[in-house]
User: Fold these one by one.
Assistant:
Number 1:
Amino acid sequence: MTSTRAMQAVLVTGATGFIGYEVAHLLVRRGLRPRLLVRRPERGRLLAPLGAELVHGDLLRPASLARAVEGVDTVLHLAARATFEAYERVRPTIVDGSLALLTAARAAGVERFVYASSLLVYGDSDAPIGARTPPRPEVGYGRAKLEAEAALERDKPSAMSLAIVRLPHVYGARSFLFDQLRRGFVLLPGSGRNVYSHLHIEDAARILVEVAARNWSGTSPVADDAPSSWNDFFMVLDEHYPRFRTLRIPERTALAGAWILENLLRLRGRPTLYTADTVRGWLLNHPVEPGLLWKELGLEPQYRTIDAGLPASLDAAVAFRWLHPLVDRARG
């Protein structure tokens, strides 16, 4: 469902992250001066070139959120723990933090709330995922995202529109995957034959902003027009950037190694991007029915397939260097 009320004052959470930064950048290009919630002040330096309004806050400190939503009509919520660790570790920011933000938004009279969810709310699916595909998460991150969706739907006021967009694998020059490409190798668990849905970062930002701008409400998965296997994904990359190696790891070995690494680092109090759930999520089949949400909004993705999106990402990677927040923490 859509309506035409214009958004004027927008809060973006997670703007120092991969997708959130692109959302904030797009809003600025469209003539808005968004307010960006920043938890770690040192990460806020990444946002300085945007000329946006920065406000310090933390999803796990509800009292800090009132200032962030004051005078705002639209919230684009992308902030969350940026790892695929166990449910107990990702739940606080994803579920409790989202509810705290909704509570603050409700008190401030926010009109629309857009939540960036994930295809990981679904289980393994050979058939294309559609609007009626029942969620069945197989990893903790997806379980937490689905729980957050339900909590937001339950607690939102009737006057507030809620849009839940279930994003697929989003790629681009600033992604962690492209950081690995620049390092010269990528770990590929399993055979690589499983089929995944993808979306270029510019299209991911565009669909989130358009959903907000048109005041669309509902829940939908979204992706580009052509799901592909990981083998096909890396074959396209290799055609345009043959300077990296793909290191294939058998499924059981990858799961065991990730589990050991995750638990060793947990004992040391350090998070990691390489977890057992990262491997499990990578091995899922997640094809999405083409056109979902795009057709409803009367739009098409700019990069309809990885054949167009990956070369564009490589072009952008020439000019940009990105640092995943977790890696930033590890080096700082």
Note: The chain has a mean pLDDT of 91.
Number 2:
Amino acid sequence: MTHPALERVAQCSRFGSRLLAAQPQLANTVAALLNQPFNRESMQAFLDNPPCANEAALNQRLRQLRQRVWLITTARDLSGSAPLSEVTTAYTNLAEVCINAALDFHYGQLALRHGEPRDAQGNPLHMVVVGMGKLGGGELNVSSDIDLIYLYPEEGNTASDGKLADGEAAIRSLTNHEFFIRLGRKLAAAISENTADGYVFRVDLRLRPWGDSGPFAMGFAMLEDYLVAQGRPWERYAWIKARALTGNRHDELTDIVRPFVFRKYLDFGAFAAIRDLHVQIRREVARREMAHNIKLGPGGIREIEFTAQVFQLIRGGQIPALQQRPTLVVLGELVAHGLMMADAQAELAAAYDFLRRLEH
């Protein structure tokens, strides 16, 4: 290893030092790639060529990609070549590419045994994986986990179009609900399971309706019923950054979620609920003695995000420009619409950039 940027990675990170020592050939591979960001197209090409023959090969390839993205992005970050936006874009792209690759592979494997999920007209259905939090906002970094919710457009049953070849067993049909639960579990394992090659991202599924006690995957109709009848104020806050990453019929999902999050009239009633939520966060920080935590402590990352999202909840129904996900973009829109002074926005944006860099 002779590239100074990689030498610095080894000096600054125990993980980087162990990775480069265990795979010395990896240093030569990535050294030639350090002059530019690791873009989405390159990630996809790494996963596609050659195609993964089985689940074990897929899991290994996903983790090898994570290692390369980590090395290149960390080296560029430490050398000052990568702004915060490059780091967050790289990790967001990594998550999306890996989710799509794992979902496509396991959908195909399950469909061979059970047929494809179908809508009322017999058309194939696909899972809509919703990224929440920093994944939804396109703001992931090296230490982020990924918050996911699994949805599908319609109830129904699986079916196969093809005729069985001689000796081939008949498929065992499942309900769409059963199929997508199995698919969701396979997806979570492909991304988060710790193997000899590590893991890709930690996966958190607790933001789904009813949390840990709720169904692993649910149809659009069930989600709508839940949000209308039982959706809580903190869930409005969580769904601000929700973004569909896979599947189709996203407009239908948007039509369900938008009225829940962004109210048509000035939503001053949200003040009390948001204030209570903020008090709960502060109490938890104090209980866990995390006052100096750069993410959760007073004046930290969460409070800057909270500031932006309070305006989104209250004014987002009247100002469509506030119905966006990235925190820095929202802060800019607040100035543009006269809801925040420019000097306050500049101070918050600079603090956010600094703290996010410090975080990773």
Note: The beta strands are 116-117, 128-132, 146-152, 158-159, 203-204, 217-219, 243-244.
Number 3:
Amino acid sequence: GRYDDGVSKRTGYPTIGDPEDTELNRAQISYESDVVDVTVGRQRIQLGNMRFVGNEDWRQNEQTFDAARVDLNLVEDLTLTYVYLEQVNRTFGDNAANGRYQSDSHLGEVTYAFTPNFSAKAYSYLISLDEAPTVSTANYGLRLMADFPLGDAVTLSTAAEYAHQTDYDNNTTDQSLDYYRAEANLAVDSWTLMLGAEVLGSDGQRGFSFPIASNHGHNGWADVFASKTPAEGLVDLWVGATVDFGKVGPFKSIAATAIYHDFSSDRGSIDFGQEVDLGLKAKLPGGFGVGLVGETYGGADTLTDTNKVSLYLTYAL
């Protein structure tokens, strides 16, 4: 009980959004073929890099969706995806005031692979949430992804994305916001070097929102900006590296990650601080895995310095 779980609102303690709860995460019926995949029911949905729609599986109770989803592969290298979203089952569970969102949302994607190394995704996410009308938004965007083999065991992977967000359905605010993202990852043998920038636009009253995304892992692991984008918007510049040490002793593999973030506002030239994220994960025989992650955030006058350490265990059949 020595933390604020997002439901209890324990003042004076850090917020860790994992309240005690018991939930049914998945109950679905699926059909799969070479041409069409259909899933109906309570399901896990991960679209793209989960920046707009994801299952937030870092939390103890993941975010799932009561939805109908259709994926079509009618033409080679072309994929069409449509999702009708009826309810969002959030990570906070039934005991929270907004533990669920009633929804009338339509999510669409068109992905085409021009070559094995270059693809494009156009998307339209029309998000309508009864309990959160101020983040009911229409989002239209384009993401380009390209890989450049530079030699033996050397590959440069790049991505560029733009999206525009406006008010939608029951949202009575008048908003028009832009989103930009560019990233490059250079893989050299067991090393991967990362460089990126993300801009969450602002109109001076609100920032670009992601109400049904997997926000953990974006804009730092400490989740300082996970619940809400600052009204002034957010600019996130990051650089990092991952190294895979391979088999070490009893471990099947060990990998380490370090990422540095520099945060500022989209409007007003506000310094929102810096963050360092460190991670270590290992695979054990028998399908077990273990991970240790730590985050330290600070340097902003208007936000709370945050330090977190998490230890987790995984098992996969």
Note: Residues 262 and 274 are 5 Å apart (CA to CA).
